[in-house]
Design brief:
elongated; alpha+beta; 5 strands
Length: about 130
């Protein structure tokens, strides 16, 4: 009986340290009024966010990634997304609830859109799994 309890305890310990999500590249979107406003791409390795980028950053007919007069806004959104790098995915999502605490992002960033796109990516599953 003691051996069974010990083995069960070991199994539960190993399971607790296992990654929640599969390693690889994820893509997700935030859509509002039939307009894809935010599309993100990021890598996860052991549930840690790596290599983030926007594939789309668009609002009311304006492409923040291409229009030079929107460079300031693009920088603030990019700062919010880049701040998630190196963090556990759950911590990264949580920090986007308070963009005013992210250096170079500020309160004007609609970080909830970024967070929603990240959550959409996780819900959709890995886009390209890492090769093992």
């Amino acid at each position: 009986m003691v051996k069974k309890i010990f083995l069960l305890n070991c199994l539960l310990t190993v399971t607790a340290f296992a990654s929640q999500y599969r390693d690889g590249t994820y893509r997700g979107v935030f859509v509002s009024n039939q307009e894809t406003q935010v599309e993100v791409q990021f890598k996860l390795k052991n549930d840690v966010v790596e290599t983030t980028k926007f594939r789309t950053l668009y609002y009311k007919g304006k492409d923040y990634l291409k229009e030079p007069d929107l460079e300031r806004e693009k920088k603030t959104y990019t700062a919010a997304l880049k701040a998630t790098e190196g963090k556990n995915i759950d911590e990264a999502k949580e920090m986007l609830y308070s963009p005013e605490k992210i250096e170079e992002a500020g309160a004007s960033v609609r970080a909830s859109k970024i967070r929603s796109a990240i959550q959409n990516a996780l819900n959709s599953g890995v886009h390209t799994p890492d090769k093992k």
